[in-house]
Specification:
Layout lengths: L1 H40 L6 H6 L2 H7 L4 H16 L3 H7 L4 H27 L3 H22 L16 H4 L2 H4 L2 H19 L4 H24 L6 E9 L6 E2 L3 H19 L4 E3 L5 E4 H18 L2 E10 L2 E10 L2 E6 L25 E3 L8 H9 L4 E3 L2 E2 L5 H15 L2 E7 L2 E5 L5 E6 L4 E9 L6 H5 L2 H21 L1
């Protein structure tokens, strides 16, 4: 009898222990799956459909575990997944490891806060609010980070969907923040439906509105053909041993001649403009005058505009500039957003620039990581943007797609030749007319792109959607505080 009595407690304790182990395995699996989805669904070469699934496993377990466990799971999943960018930031960009680690931790904390807010609202019986507040928190956090980060919006998750054309059209209304909202909202809606079965109809209705609204708007915008004229442009890149070749060097003279030889061919192909990459040559003021006469002469002889990126050293400092040469005219644009660490010695510009008598503007590479510059051009009626660029080879795909999003946001066609990157041209809907890898020798492409439509809602109203997301999150936090009291 005593033996039987001794066995009963062991049997009683086994069920809770097994439940704890099962819950632990479920959380571990959710962390591993989410981390893998973040790894392959974000980064320099994301797989777009995986990005939609990345938050789902952690959202799904958040309501079934304690708050601390949910926060830890979210933090670990995003930290592990976002390490796909570690070698790029630390090795390629040479950003200090401590800075990179701090930024990745900040991203992971943001995701943990999103999951925590989702869980709290869900446990209070507000599944629809939970499924909307969570993506609002993510989109709002991305926007706030972009205001302070030297990289601007570079890390925004919405860039993973650039080639999903019906989805990316939403940026013409909301900015890139709207895509980040959608990428988080649909997994949150699914997770909320799994956690609160009676609310599935309401959650399904919200999901249907988001899906149908996004797809309907995207397809309708893609069906609209801008009425502007076609711009035929030639893009060219010549591989060189270093960035900003001193113009007096033998290699620079050879590279320059190779570029100038492109002008007659480009003009014969119907191109009105030849665009070269960023930082092709390094020049002083006297050297710039000689270079200008030579390029200007070729441009005039072939009735074509030649845009070239240069590093100029003059009495006021060092400048990263784009110069456009045409018959009887010369237009200069100074890069406004310099690359931290690499261009700290340079002086930033503060003015927009256009080709004479046109709506064709000039920008340089990193400028287009910052939504405000694209919006500034859009507000002035710009329909085409020429953007000499210089990438780090492995980031050419992502960086060029970010530039394409600036065009879709503001109804501007973008032409972006990048040294050690890609020759990319896209219309104002994000449709690629050229996408050629550079850095392998002499690379060129001649494309015809319809000028943009301009005048998008995003151009007029700016980051209204991000602010609306922040207001929704603030309202939820106030409500949670009142309920707790």
């Amino acid at each position: 009898m005593a033996t039987a009595l001794e066995i009963v407690p062991e049997q009683a304790d086994s069920a809770p222990a097994k439940a704890v182990r099962r819950r632990g395995l479920l959380v571990a699996a959710a962390v591993a799956v989410s981390a893998a989805l973040v790894w392959f669904g974000t980064g320099l070469s994301p797989i777009p459909w995986l990005t939609w699934l990345a938050p789902l496993p952690v959202f799904a377990v958040a309501a079934r575990v304690s708050g601390r466990t949910a926060l830890a799971a979210a933090f670990l999943a995003w930290t592990a997944g976002s390490l796909n960018m570690w070698t790029y930031y630390v090795g390629t960009l040479e950003v200090p490891a401590g800075v990179v680690g701090g930024f990745l931790v900040l991203q992971a904390l943001s995701f943990a806060a999103v999951v925590g807010l989702f869980r709290l609202l869900l446990r209070q019986g507000r599944p629809v609010l939970a499924a909307l507040a969570a993506p609002a928190a993510w989109a709002g956090a991305e926007y706030v980070v972009s205001l302070f980060s030297p990289g601007g919006s570079f890390s925004a998750i919405g860039y993973t969907q650039v080639e999903v054309l019906p989805v990316i059209q939403v940026v013409s209304v909301t900015g890139v923040w709207g895509v980040g909202f959608l990428l988080t909202a649909l997994p949150a809606l699914v997770a909320a439906a799994l956690a609160d079965r009676p609310a599935w109809r309401r959650l399904l209705a919200v999901a249907a509105v988001l899906i149908v609204g996004t797809a309907g708007y995207g397809l309708a915008r893609l069906a609209q053909t801008p009425t502007g004229p076609d711009t035929t442009a030639a893009l060219a890149d010549v591989r060189q041993s270093e960035d900003a070749l001193p113009i007096a060097s033998a290699e620079a003279r050879q590279v320059l001649q190779t570029y100038l030889d492109q002008a007659p061919r480009a003009a014969a192909g119907g191109a009105s403009v030849l665009v070269l990459p960023e930082k092709v040559f390094k020049v002083t003021e006297p050297e710039l005058a000689d270079l200008g006469r030579r390029i200007g002469g070729v441009a005039a002889a072939n009735r074509i505009t030649i845009v070239v990126g240069l590093t100029l050293k003059d009495q006021s400092g060092v400048h990263n500039i784009a110069l456009a040469y045409a018959a009887g005219s010369e237009v200069r644009y100074d890069k406004q957003h310099l690359v931290t660490g690499w261009e700290d010695h340079m002086t930033a510009g503060d003015r927009l620039a256009w080709l004479p008598g046109s709506h064709t503007g000039l920008a340089i590479c990193k400028d287009l990581d910052h939504p405000e510059l694209g919006r500034a051009y859009g507000s002035h009626g710009t329909t085409v943007l020429l953007a000499p660029a210089l990438d780090f080879e492995r980031d050419g795909r992502l960086h060029s797609r970010i530039a394409v999003v600036r065009g879709v946001e503001n109804g501007i066609s973008v032409i972006r030749p990048a040294g050690r990157g890609r020759l990319v041209a896209a219309d104002s809907r994000g449709r690629l007319a050229a996408d050629t890898v550079t850095g392998t020798g002499v690379t060129s492409a001649t494309v015809s792109v319809r000028s943009g439509s301009g005048g998008t809602p995003y151009t007029r109203f700016g980051d209204w959607f991000a602010w609306l997301c922040l207001l929704l999150v603030a309202g939820c936090l106030v409500r949670l505080a009142i309920v707790r009291r």
